[in-house]
Fold this protein.
Amino acid sequence: MLNEFARIAGGMMFMQGHIVSPETARLLAQVDRSPSRKPGGGRHVPMLRNSEVRVYATLVALAAIWGGSFLFQRVAAKDFGPVPLVEVRLALGAAILLPFLVRERARFPFSRWLSIVAIGALNTTLPFLLFAWGAERAPAGIGAIANSLAVPFAALAAFALFGERIGARRATALLSGLVGVAVLASGHVAGSSIGAAVAAGTLAALMYGISANLTKRYLSDLPSAALAAITLLSGAIALAPFAVASWPSTPVPPHSWASVVALGVLCTGLAYALYFRLIQRIGAPRSAMVTYIVPVFGVAWGWLFLGEPLTISMAVGGALILGGMIFGQREARSKAKLEKCHAPCATC
């Protein structure tokens, strides 16, 4: 899914604030395509079986961590409120990624900070606030499923803003996703409607799609981890006064503090660093598989730890959204193969 998202956005890859530049993706792709050779000249598989197992274990662990972000938001939102929760999340995530920014600071002149901050708000601060607001009102799995709409929305934004062609498969994926949202919003949990939370998650995913296209136009030459650090840091600074004004008047329970710390350190800081490392090891396309598993963990953690119900509307809506997304991605793969075949190479 992120691979498709990256293709739509010129190589920029987003996941809850995470950004990977096309320059990085191209370099990694070249390394990934380079064949390994034995001393005698014969080829061999570059990754051993045990290493392959570790890679897939890392993918599953990363999906579990990112799926857990919706669980942590669900636990902490009712005690913190959306704004203080997101403030702590941004600040902790920025602290983890700050060394990347320090190392690459020369590539971030002051003249570019305005566009970085504006696009960063659309890619991190505002979606984080919407997901946190929705977490007060609906099960953790609702946000995880709605988050998956970022991919078809990226195609829609590319068409609406820059006139890029959507294609039949991606148009079908978008339609399937919108139908899935309607089914998801029609559900009830404990007798209460979850439509508002679904709308908030859908709007957040739309923001991810728009910001992907804006980043392609204006920020694609900047290093990924440092850019992620700036967006988190600028969001934390901008949100700080509002967080102070709305800070809870009663003491926050320890379990909510633990959840928000885990959200900031584990899900927003360390998980991104782990994802960067995974991309360096196996390349961006294979790393993108993690996104298919995130909604599964988002739903599973809510059911396992909070006793949240698994409803028919969640199952049907989730299947329409994820199924449409997978269907739409096949078009991108076919085009990629065609473009590769048209490129001059020894095998064509």
Q: What stands out?
A: The first strand starts at residue 13 and ends at 15. Strands lie at 13-15, 18-20, 188-189, 192-193. Residues 238 and 264 are 17 Å apart (CA to CA). The first helix runs from residue 2 to 8.
